[in-house]
Amino acid sequence: MKNIKMIFFDYGNTLVYEKVAHGPKTLAEIYQTIENPKLGLKEFYTSFKEKVRAYQNEYFPKDRDFLYDKVFQEVFEENGLKSALSFEAMVKSYFDTHAQGFAMEGAKELLAYLEEKNLAYGVISNISISENVLSQRLKEVLDRDIDLVISSGDRYYRKPDRKIFTLAADLAGFSLDQCLYIGDNPLCDYKGPKDAGMEAIFFDSPTFSPFVTAREKIFLEEGIIRVNKLLDIIKILEGDINDRR
Fold first, then answer.
1. Beta-ladder partners of 131
2. Side-chain-facing half-sphere of 16: CA atoms under 13 Å
3. Across 34-38, 67-71, 87-91, least confident range
4. Would you call the peptide bond into 160 cis, given omega within 30 degrees of 0 as the criterion?
5. Could you tell me the pLDDT band of residue 25, with boundaries at 50, 70 and 90?
């Protein structure tokens, strides 16, 4: 692993752990802003979830994505609802309630190390929210701005499609072989970036992701670079840095 200039991380269960909640309560804050609601909270939640599932069933099998903004827009238009909130503000409210975020052990320290070494870093996430909302979440949880944040919702392509990795490298201003990807999903965060031309480290995350699909639970061959603690990545990078001297 030589000449790494840019490090990309996965979001969930890599830099941030999410405590996931379900049910109508996740939309209660949004529901309270609706002017003269024509349906109850449970009906509102059911309408929202049915539309989310329809989008997921249409897009995810093709490694494509959508934005929750569009889901809220359609739910409001189809049910004749009005709110002073923007659709993006609704997404943030739902995101904060549905998936409360906490920093993974060692995440802040690892990012501080990269900053100290002047190594650029960013995030690529399969997530149906805008890069703006995701950037806000990362700042709130990790106490820092991350310059390059890429969400599949905004970019249409989902990992492991090589297009999202190529796009990320282009936006960062580096070639694919100068980029390192770190994440916990065998298909999306190891095989995907490797096939695209990036280096990769598989993070054997101590937290469970409820969003990993059966298709993504592929077997990783022996001899891959694997860590189960984020701070172990520093040792790998130190070896690379020392080899350049």
1. none
2. 24
3. 34-38
4. yes
5. very high
How much of the chain exceeds pLDDT 90, in percent? Answer: 85
Please name the helix (run of DSSP H) or strand (run of DSSP E) that holds residue 154, with its range, or none: helix 152-155
Specify the pairing of strand 16-20 against strand 99-103. Answer: antiparallel
User: Is the separation of the CB atoms in 139 and 11 below 8 Å?
Assistant: no
Please spell the DSSP secondary structure of 131-143, one letter per residue: HHHHHHHHHHHHS
R_g of the chain, CA atoms, integer Å: 19
The residue assigned the tokens 């999410």 is 18
Q: Which residue has the tokens 């109850």?
A: 40
Angle at which helices 107-116 and 131-142 cross, to 10°: 100
Which residues are registered as beta bridge partners of 83?
A: 34
CA–CA gap between residue 219 and residue 149 (Å, rounded): 28
φ, ψ for residue 120 (rounded to 5)? Answer: -70, 150
Of residues 46, 35, 18, the one with CA closest to residue 210: 18
- Could you give the C-alpha distances from 93 to 11, 27, 82, in angstroms and in order? 18, 8, 16
The sign of the torsion formed by the CA atoms of 235, 122, 139, 127 equals negative
Query: What is the torsion angle, in degrees rounded to the nearest 10, for the CA atoms of residue 103, residue 108, residue 110 and residue 113?
Result: 170
Residue in this structure with the two tokens 């501080």, named with its chain if needed = 112
CA–centroid distance for 245 within its chain: 34
241 — pLDDT class (breaks 50, 70, 90) = very low
How far apart CA 151 and CA 12 sit, in angstroms, is 12
Measured in whole angstroms, how far is the alpha carbon of residue 15 from the centre of its chain?
9
Cα-flanking dihedrals φ and ψ of residue 34, to 5°?
Answer: -75, 130
